[in-house]
Write a structure and sequence with these properties.
By secondary structure, the protein is of the alpha+beta class. It has one domain: Pnp Oxidase, Chain A. Helix content is 18%, strand content 35%. The longest helix has 15 residues.
Length: 208
């Protein structure tokens, strides 16, 4: 992707990435993003689930949502995603940091109007949040699709920023007898927990 003034960081520009492989891999791993816009002079930032497919990012929400109705009309938005990989523990508080992967997207929404395309996008959502579950679940109804707004954001103006590696302690601090290094942040999914209605229903393979 071509850098723009909005996607070019003002600090630590060497951490910026504009290639699709880096941006898409972060978006595909992350489950949630924050969508920000300004409504009547008031900034709003709403966290929500999302899915990427090809060169677009999709979100969905209730047709009655004021925020969704506002941005579906073409209001400019900024979408952010961050994955935290490790705490970077230095020999001084000043050099503590975080190893992270982040993406920033600028753009405006296009409302998905076609019924079958909406169903397909909702399938992508479901398969991302709970892989291999779409065919297991009760089929989605026409009423549910009609009650849901699906918005697409082109990934034409986007950039990633990544920090990796150990602390960058000052040279005069490197001999201090103070521990420094990384504390990994181990994300992931735990074991499934059945609700009261599923105590006697076998756990399906896609949830094991």
């Amino acid at each position: 992707m071509t850098p723009t003034p909005r996607t070019t960081p003002s600090r630590l520009a060497k951490r910026a990435h504009f290639d699709e492989a880096t941006i898409y891999s972060i978006l595909d791993e992350a489950l949630f993003c924050t969508v920000s816009t300004v409504i009547d002079g008031q900034p709003f930032a709403i966290p929500t689930a999302f899915v990427r497919y090809d060169d677009a990012l999709y979100i969905h929400g209730s047709v009655g949502s004021h925020f969704v109705r506002t941005i579906e009309g073409g209001a400019p938005v900024c979408i952010t995603v961050m994955l935290a990989d490790a705490l970077v523990v230095a020999k001084s508080a000043f050099h503590h940091s975080v190893n992270y992967r982040s993406v920033v997207v600028f753009g405006a929404a296009t409302k998905v109007e076609d019924y079958q395309q909406k169903v397909e996008v909702l399938k992508w959502f479901t398969e991302k949040i709970v892989p291999d579950s779409w065919g297991y679940l009760r089929p989605i109804t026409e009423s549910e699709v009609r009650k849901t707004t699906v918005l697409a954001f082109p990934l034409h103006e986007a950039s990633a920023k990544v920090r990796t590696g150990m602390p960058n302690d000052d040279e005069e601090d490197q001999a201090l007898p103070i521990w420094s290094g990384l504390i990994p942040l181990l994300g992931g999914r735990g074991a499934a927990i059945a609700d009261n209605l599923s105590q006697n229903i076998p756990l399906p393979n896609h949830l094991q």
